[in-house]
Each structure stands twice: as structure tokens, then as C-alpha cells.
Amino acid sequence: MKQKLLNIIVLLIVSHVDSIAQTNYNLSNLLSFDGEPYIAVNPANQNNIIAAWMRLRADGKIWIATKASFDKGQSWSAINFMPHDSVINGSADVSIAFHHSGTAYLTWINFRTNPDTAGAVFISKSIDGGLTWGTPNKVIDDKDKPDNPFDRPWVAVDNSGGINDGAVYVTSMTAYWRTGQHHIYLRTSSDGGLTWGMVKQVDTAGFSVGVLTACYGGISIGKDGNAYIAYLSYDVSVSPFVRYFCATTNNLGITFQRNLVGNASISGGSSFTRAWSVAANPAINGNAVLTWVDNRNGDYDILISKTINGGLTWTSPTRVNDDSLSNGIEQDMVWANFSPSGKLAIAWRDRRLNGIGSTVPFDLFAAYAIDSVNTLSSNFRITSVSSPYFAVPQGNSFIGCAISDSSIYFNWGDYRNSPDWDIFFNKSDLANLSSVNEIATSSKSINIF
Predict the structure, then answer these.
(1) Which of 287, 368, 300, 285 is nearest to 333 (CA)?
(2) Structural contact between residues 297 and 325, judged by C-beta atoms closer than 8 angstroms
(3) Is the pTM value of this prediction over 0.85?
(4) What is the pLDDT of residues 394-445, one digit of tens each?
(5) Are strands 34-41 and 25-26 parallel, antiparallel or unpaired?
(6) Burial of 82 from C-beta contacts in 10 A (0-12 / 13-18 / 19+)
(7) What is the DSSP string of 221-238?
């Protein structure tokens, strides 16, 4: 009788998990290449989400595409395409940030590498939830610094309610194809992106990016108005280790406090995407997390480190993926975000369903935390179908993860419709995820005879 009862409970668990794992929605649903997605939630209307990605169009150029939803992703607007600044330029590197008033900011780059190297970071804003976008304004271009400081921008907005509330922050890096020393840059605007302050260099002697050439400055702003900018460093004149630093500023980049997060292990292989993500808690002063890809355990895992004192010190890293340790299964391509009330979501690419190695088919998995100490849930699957391996090119190396106070939203690129690379969307409601975890935990106490 107990065995029969256990079978029923297990069936209920499986059925419940299937019911919350929606069929993945093909957000792009177009022929050819779509990649490097981003997704953001409107804190003023948490049913409103904006998704964006890179789109290869018939003219042979990459464009930035956006869609908006006002019902948590059940339906979507038509695609908007952000303009190029020149007929010979393409676009890349999209990101989105909302102010708590509901204004959305979108950044991307227009650039070329032939016949010369030129480019700029542009920003546009939307006051209608992403249905329409204003005239783009230039943030930084190749003339502002001699090392092409316009690559891989990220945008963040101060929602603290403090003296800099509403300020827009944009980080960028030296173009990855440049030779010579690379840097991380910050520029801020206090008038909604119309005008911009001086370009500030975030890294400095002793805290430089070293010899790395694809080292972006991920950015997030916390409850106290502290901006956290995280970047990777390999400077053998200072340390033999690859390390993560976090620079913080509470005065629009006039001054920075730079602190070591910890060492990183990222050796070997070209089939992994060693992304990292910094997320600051908008509900708790001084709380932020850094997530990254690391192979200190013999295969690539997702690690997390936390600060509760504004980035001065960081905890020893802990493992996010909950498959068995050192099993040869590879995880990479991580992204994390907080909700307005301080809930945390983390998503990554995972190969646990398909075997050892980096070139086996992959899925997306996630974990979340709803408490103030960021205690993570068990992992859950986002994708409904595994994607065949595809060698991710430069410029398709990110996934989107955003969280409201009730739901987690994901968008990502995969290859299930080979030869198309499409952008897919999924949503997980926190109430359903919590109930599944509670049922699964309670079932462990059942005795089997």
C-alpha cells in the first residue's frame, strides 16, 4: 500500500513539474541567425517585460530586435529594429534597464571593422513599456579614447530613491580585437541619457584587466545607490592568478573603491563561455552577488560569491549547480538578477541531461532564492527540448534572466531548429516552483516496503 502511495506522489510531482515548464516560446521565429538575448522586467508594472536580441537580416547586417509583453509573456508585440548610425555599420551587444518610474533604457553598439575600425554605444528610451523607442543618443565612441572604448556595453539605472535616483550608468570595454592594453570604462547621465559626464576608467594599476582582451564590466546598482562593476583580471605583475574584482562607486564614478572578490579557475578549452554576472539587491543595503563559470572542481561549474557590506568583502564561493561534484558535466553562460523585493534568480547553460564534455547537447537550468540571505533552491530545467551543440561565436555568448516578485523570465538562443539559431522564451512562476520543492522535500521521508 505504501509503495502504491509513493508511486502516486511521484506521479503528482512529475505532473506538477511538467505543468509549470511551459512549452518554450520561439520569440524570434525567423530564418537565419538570432543571438545574444537580454530580458528585463518593469518594476512599475511587473507584467510588462521587454526582450531584445541580435538579428541577422536580409541585408547581411546584424540589427537589434526588441519585443514587449504586458501579460508576462503570454503575448508579444511586433518586432522593433533599432537603427544603424551608418549604412556600413552593424549592431551588437544589447542590454536593457528599467527605472522604477517605468522608463526603459536600451543600449547597443553600432560598429564596423572594415574598411576601418569605428563604432559607438547608443542609448534609446521607451516610456510605453517597449512598444516604441525614442531617437537614439550616443554614449561613447571611438573618438573618446584611443583604444576603441565602445565594446560590450551594459546599462543600469539608479532606483535607490537617493540623490542619484534616475541616473543612467553605462559601462563599456576596449574592443576585443584591439591589441595593447585593455580597459573598462564608465559614463553616467543625470538627465535621462540626453547628456553624459566624463568618461571614467574603472580599472587601474593594481586592479587592471591585465592581458585579457574580452573583459567586460558588468554593472548593477543597489538599494543604497552603490554601483557595482565586476570584471576579470589577469595581471602577472600583481598576481599569478586570474581574479575577479568589483569596483564600487556611489558618486557617479567620481571615485571608486576597488576590492578583490576572489580567484577564478578558467583554464583549458574553447568550447565554454566564461561569462560572469553581478547583481545588486534593490531591497537590502550592501547586498550583491557575483556569479561566474569556474573549473576548480575539475569541470566547469557555476559559482556564487556574496557581499553584505557594499563590496568591501566577499564570501568564499559556493556551487550553484546541484549535480554531483566533479562528474565531468559542464555548466557555463551564467546570468543573475534580483527582483524589486530582493528575490534572486540565476540561469545558466547545462549539459547534465546529455553526458560528459562540452560539445554534447545542452539545456538551460536555473535556481532562485526568496530569502534575505540568498539561500538557493534546487535546480530546475528551463528548456523543454535539448539543443544540439553549436560553437558559440563571438557575440552570441549570453542568456537573459530577469525576475519579478512573482515570476522568473528567461530568453536564450539555441539550435533545436538547425540550421536556425532562434531565441526562445520561458516563464516560471515562483508560487509553483516553491510548491514543487516543498512536495519533493516532504516525499523523501516516506518509507518503502
Answers:
(1) 300
(2) yes
(3) yes
(4) 556 799 999 999 999 999 999 998 888 999 999 999 999 975 554 343 333 3
(5) unpaired
(6) buried
(7) E-TTS-EEEEEEEB-TTT
